[in-house]
Design a protein that fits this description.
heterodimer, A: alpha+beta, Alpha-Beta Plaits, 5 strands, 38% helix, B: alpha/beta, TIM Barrel, 7-stranded parallel β-sheet, two-stranded antiparallel ribbon, 10 helices, 9 strands, 45% helix
């Protein structure tokens, strides 16, 4: 039997003055992962943007659980988005969306 | 639950609004203790003002001084004059002579090295052995990792990987701090711990370097600076009052 890949869901909060949409955020995270770990590393992260919660200004991102620390490092190393200063903070990590919504 | 500390929050004293927002951000990021570097001639009033800001944000404040001596004599002079005025003493080692003196001196808490000029990073086995005997910690600032780009970051990460391995092998405590001058470079403790995987510091050691190690340093120094302290293991438990 093929074992199902485990995933982790990350709740992200963008600190910065300009508004960020889903596409821009995912591009910034993917670019940072590629910059730090290359295309091979990026291919192992299985990054996917799940949702955007406008009332909390939070994004939920999914990645492979084996690459969680690398994805976190890549997210932490983002200092600008679209050429403007910004920072992305991970506000919660969980194995399921339900648990993540309880945490954040 | 871990209590995290940022021992190098470079909040500007002259800009109170910015300092306040940085301390508040540190509190939001779940730090319980911050150390802000202060000038040598800092007044009591300035320290009290900073303590007020930190109390409002529910963060403990440790006073810190950064020395950048040109030679070991200058370091010794500074230590003699200012050690008792600050809770944390960090030494930026620009020469090997200063690095060796700082590593063996028990009055020094943190050893810092240049992040841009890697020839001035003198943390090798000899330095680590001295530091380990004198309880000095190797301080690694994480904001430069965010600020540097391309080859300078690659070279720094490569150097840090070697230094961290040496420190772990010789049991030199590592202290991770932000070194942030702006909110943009401040991150939560778990994000910083994730960043340290870039230079192969194990997650457990990274979390220790952000929580236990800085708290141990601060607690040890606060005990030493208390008026009841006599010598290691000896303290005044009560004073006789003559009627």
């Amino acid at each position: 039997m093929i074992k199902r890949e485990k995933r982790r869901y990350l709740a992200l909060e963008v600190a910065g003055e300009q508004p960020v949409d889903e596409r821009t955020l995912l591009d910034a995270v993917q670019a940072s992962v590629r910059k730090l770990f290359g295309e091979y590393g990026a291919s192992k992260t299985n990054l996917k943007l799940i949702t955007y919660i406008p009332e909390k200004r939070q994004f939920v991102l999914r990645c492979s659980h084996t690459m969680l620390e690398k994805v976190r490092a890549a997210i932490a190393s983002i200092t600008e988005i679209n050429g403007k200063p910004a920072a992305i903070h991970v506000v919660g990590v969980s194995g399921t969306l339900k648990a993540l919504s309880k945490k954040t | 639950m871990k209590r995290f500390a940022d021992l190098h929050l470079r909040a500007p004293l002259e800009d109170q609004t910015k300092a306040e927002s940085m301390v508040r951000k540190a509190s939001e990021l779940r730090y319980k203790l911050v150390a802000i570097p202060l000038p040598l001639q800092v007044t009591k009033q300035q320290v009290i003002q900073l303590k007020h800001i930190c109390n409002d944000a529910k963060v403990d404040l440790a006073t810190r001084v950064n020395f950048s001596p040109r030679n070991s004599n200058e370091l010794l002079q500074s230590l003699r004059r200012f050690r008792r005025k600050f809770e944390i003493v960090a030494v930026r080692c620009h020469t090997k002579d200063v690095a060796r003196q700082a590593a063996k001196d028990r009055r020094v808490d943190l050893l810092q090295f240049s992040v841009t000029n890697l020839r001035q990073r003198f943390f090798n086995e000899a330095e680590a052995e001295l530091a380990s005997q004198a309880f000095a910690s190797l301080e690694i600032e994480l904001a430069p990792i965010l600020q540097l780009t391309s080859y300078s970051r690659i070279r720094l990460l490569s150097r840090l990987r070697k230094e961290v391995a040496t420190a772990e092998r010789l049991r030199v405590p590592i202290t991770l701090s932000s070194g942030a001058t702006d909110e943009q470079f401040m991150r939560g403790p778990y994000d910083y711990a994730a960043l340290t995987t870039l230079f192969d510091l194990p997650m457990s050691s990274a979390l220790r370097a952000l929580s236990e190690n800085p708290w141990v340093t601060v607690a040890r120094n606060r005990e030493k600076l208390s008026p009841d302290y006599v010598a290691p293991g000896i303290r005044v438990v009560g004073r006789r009052t003559d009627d």
